[in-house]
Amino acid sequence: MNILVQTRNRLSKFLLAFFKKKRSRIGIYGPPNAGKTTLANRIASDWTGETVGQVSEVPHETRRASRKTDITLTGANGSSITIDIVDTPGVTTKIDYKDFLEYGITKEDAITRAREATEGVAEAMHWLREDIDGVIYMLDSTEDPFLQVNIMMIGIIESRKLPVLIVANKIDLPDAAPQRIRNAFPQHPVIQISCKEGKNVEDLYEKMVDHFG
Amino acid sequence: MPHKCANCGREYRNGAKELLAGCAECGGKKFYFVPYVRRHEKKKEPEPEKEVPAVVPPRVEAEESPQTDAGVDKLESVRIVSPGTYELNISKMANSDERVVGIGRGDGSYIVDLLSMVKPKSGKKHKKSK
Question: CB distance A93–B111 less than 8 Å?
Fold first, then answer.
């Protein structure tokens, strides 16, 4: 009898080692001001009641990657996933302090911000290189998706064989054109949402459970 | 005086024969390049309009040398000072493959080479080949 119990325990340990799902780390990537932190905050507050970072209309408000761990999302069919959400700084290829001056930031602060933002891009890329299991690529529906940085980032994510969900955000704005994003990246699922108003966010959660589960 | 002995810190001007023969003080043959832009900015701030060719640094700077390893803590690996004039941050380039290009004389404008930041670590290749 004792041998039977021992064998059962060993077998279950063995099977767990193989089939136990590792907690996925999902990175929210995208150009500056696409709404990455807003989405991270919404996911975190909807499922854990807490927030991740501060939101602002000035580009590069998030200059350090921040993480919210142990978020369990449950889909309509009852299946669930536990993920860590990593909100990353906006990825861009050019950062100029002059772009910040129009927001009333002093030259010294703008220069510091530009430096930190550049370091932030490096940090975001570092996470992508080392620690990310899936990507939510966030785009502003009112902007042209055919930017070099978007094409390059999607290419990089594909080359690393990471599952990616593209989110067309800000569909509440009058000049939003999420169809452009669908046309730009037909090879990936695109979910159109308004993070600010919470529109279609449930669809995104459903898709996340499906895609990253 | 943009060249600084890595050993004793003595500075030499561009083209000085000690750069090839070795430092007159300690005999060291390694020299840091002290970025010209920084020195230029510090000393010549009141008249930024005046352009001095980068290859002929002003002599006045000979006595005072407050700079220590300028460029080492800089974010960019290459700075395009003006078309055709570049500053290379050797220590950054030696330590990482990431390429950040600084634009212009001051700080605050950068171009980031994203592809250089996602290259797999060279260690992984070794693992595979084993």
Answer: yes
Smallest Cβ distance to A128: which of B107, B110, B118?
Answer: B118
Whether residue A156 lies within 8 A of chain B, CB to CB, comes out as: yes
Q: Examine the domain organization and report whether B26 and B72 are in the same domain.
A: no
pTM of the predicted protein model: 0.70
Residue reference for tokens 């050797």: B90
A134-140 and A164-169: which strand pairing?
A: parallel
Taking the C-alpha atoms of residue A72 and residue A81, their distance in angstroms, rounded to an integer, is 6
Q: How far is CA A162 from the centre of its chain?
A: 12
In a domain? residue B43: no
CB-CB neighbours of B16 under 10 Å: 15
A151 touches chain B (CB under 8 A): no
Q: Which residue has the higher pLDDT, A24 or B58?
A: A24
Q: List, for residues A120-142, the tens digit of each pLDDT value.
A: 999 999 899 888 999 999 999 99
Q: What is the pLDDT of residue B67?
A: 43
ipTM given for this complex: 0.70
d(CA A62, CA A38): 11
In a domain, B47, yes or no: no
Question: CB of A6 within 8 A of CB of A32?
Answer: no
Q: Judging by beta carbons within 10 Å of its beta carbon (0-12, 13-18, 19+), is residue A105 exposed, middle or buried?
A: middle
Name the percent of chain A lying above pLDDT 90: 69
**Residue of A26, A115, A155, A150 whose CA lies nearest to B100:** A115
Taking the Cβ of residue B123 and every Cβ of chain A, the question of whether any pair is shorter than 8 Å is answered with no
Q: Which domains does chain A have, with CATH numbers?
A: 20-212 (3.40.50.300)
Domain extent, residue B87, equals: 67-130
